[in-house]
Design a protein that fits this description.
globular, single chain, 27 helices, mainly alpha
Length: 515
């Protein structure tokens, strides 16, 4: 089966809501000459099409092949202009940009006082909404007007603008350095996951400290604090310091609740902050706090006051469902969690063009882990195969590696041992290739390889021996990450005590939170 050809224009047309399509046609129809234009005919054809097919467009006779690229580019631009005019896409940033454009027009017409008046209001709006890059741009234009023309402004005007420009520039530099550091740390998380050894930890510590700008005694605003907390959060995640993850994720989320106007202005950052707050609570296995924060998060995003566009709706879907699943890992309620899988799979089709491969793989791993915890090993293998067959090795190498380890265990549990030796070899080779062979994985592979030589009556002792070996790694700063992906310890205890793994995890959870 061939994949549909992807086309940017087609994707844009298909992303439009009914009201946006209506707005576009009204926008185009404002000039009668457009009613029979090639770009409008192309729009109507793409709107009705289920897939992008260039041959069908040319066969329709709307445009010649030599014209198609230009007509498509023109249609793309007209749709964007129409969307910009749509009230649902109006926000403070666009308002500031619009005022700056108006001021520039007035300036070029020689109406300097009118231009300065608009700039002053736009600057107030920008500073109030932490749009300091725009505020700096406005100040620079104010300086141009004040330096070239006699506007009879107050005598201290030049000094005021110079000081304001300097302050905004300094804060913009801090925000830029912090955002760069934050992005670089995030890319490391996506590429390799947590630090794997002392050498990587030392490199990361030096990297972080070298690039972290000095913020002490600086008057930081919302934006600078946000990037500061984000940088510390990524660093803490990479170092597997989950208490500090919780500390900085809490600061991140609290920053929004202290500045409620920023929630709708920066909804993506608000959602991401909540996601990492929930993830850090999940890693410290505090279900009461986890459920409380998850319910608060859902109540906020489902409120009519919370503005949603397609991007925001996608993130709400991702984060809500990641954590809907995660809560079942904390107390071992896998059977209950299985009910989520078909619901999420159905929704994944709806968000197909908006969810990247990385997040899709995370869902598959969570599905597989739920099935494994519930004892459905063949279903677990089916979900893992979607990850293992992925050939994009540049993302989440840790996820790809642990999927193979879980795949080995699931094959053993399912009794599918007729090609276990081949599977062992391929897993071992892959882990070496990824430089991902840790002590926990070495012990697991060695154990599974040796199972064929163990008599049934000696099996329990073998499980006990491996359990004793692996428990020593539970609190190891770099080996413990293995247990974040797969609770091998609880699985071994389930084999030793002859109980379902869900029962073992639930007993641990109840013991921990028994009051």
């Amino acid at each position: 089966m061939t994949k549909d050809q992807k086309d940017n224009l087609f994707s844009l047309v298909k992303s439009l809501t009914k009201s946006e399509k209506r707005q576009f046609k009204l926008y185009v129809g404002r000039l009668g000459v457009n009613s029979d234009s090639k770009f409008l005919k192309l729009f109507n054809l793409l709107d009705k099409s289920k897939a992008y097919n260039e041959g069908a467009i040319l066969k329709n006779g709307i445009v010649k092949k030599s014209q198609l690229a230009n007509v498509k580019a023109h249609l793309y631009k007209q749709i964007l202009i129409s969307l910009k005019l749509n009230p649902s896409h109006q926000n403070v940033r666009l308002q500031i940009r619009e005022q700056l454009d108006f001021a520039s027009i007035l300036y070029h017409k020689g109406l300097y006082k009118q231009s300065l008046k608009i700039l002053d209001k736009a600057k107030e709006l920008a500073i109030a909404n932490e749009e300091k890059n725009s505020a700096f741009e406005i100040v620079e234009l104010e300086k141009v007007i004040e330096s070239q023309y006699i506007t009879r402004s107050i005598s201290t005007r030049a000094d005021e603008l110079a000081i304001q420009a300097k302050e905004l520039s300094a804060l913009n530099v801090i925000a830029s350095k912090l955002s760069n550091l934050s992005l670089q740390l995030y890319s490391i998380i996506l590429k390799t996951g947590y630090v794997r050894n002392e050498k990587e930890a030392t490199i990361l510590i030096n990297y972080f400290n070298k690039r972290l700008p000095v913020t002490k005694n600086k008057k930081l605003g919302f934006r600078e604090k946000l990037w500061l907390y984000k940088a510390h959060l990524w660093y803490s995640f990479l170092m597997q310091d989950f208490l500090n993850c919780y500390k900085y994720a809490s600061k991140w989320v609290d920053l929004f609740y202290q500045n409620p106007s920023m929630i709708n202005l920066n909804p993506v950052f608000f959602l991401k902050g909540n996601n990492y707050l929930l993830e850090s609570i999940f890693f410290v296995r505090n279900k009461p706090k986890f459920v409380k924060k998850l319910e608060h998060f859902k109540a906020t995003v489902n409120s009519p006051k919370f503005a949603k566009d397609e991007n925001v709706a996608t993130l709400i879907f991702l984060y809500s469902n990641f954590h809907n699943i995660n809560q079942h890992f904390i107390d071992g309620s896998f059977e209950e969690g299985l009910e989520l899988i078909p619901v999420i799979e159905k929704e994944l089709i709806k968000f197909e063009d908006k969810i990247d491969p990385h997040h899709r793989l995370v869902f598959y791993y969570k599905f597989a882990s739920l099935e494994f915890g519930a004892g459905n090993n063949k279903a677990c293998i089916k979900h893992l195969d979607k990850i293992i067959s992925n050939k994009t090795l540049s993302m989440r190498e840790d996820l790809l590696c642990f999927s193979r380890v879980l795949n080995l265990v699931a094959h053993y549990e399912a009794g599918l041992d007729y090609h276990l030796e081949t599977l062992l070899r391929s897993t071992y080779k892959f882990l070496i290739k990824m430089n991902e062979l840790h002590e926990v994985q070495k012990e697991m592979i060695k154990f599974i390889r040796g199972l064929q030589d163990i008599y049934p009556q000696d099996l329990k002792n073998a499980f006990k021996k491996l359990h004793k070996t692996l428990v020593a790694f539970e609190d190891h700063p770099y080996e413990r990450r293995a247990f974040l992906y797969l609770d091998i310890i609880s699985w071994l205890e389930s084999k030793i005590e002859n109980k379902p793994v869900s029962e073992i995890i639930n007993t641990k959870y109840l013991t921990k939170y028994a009051h």
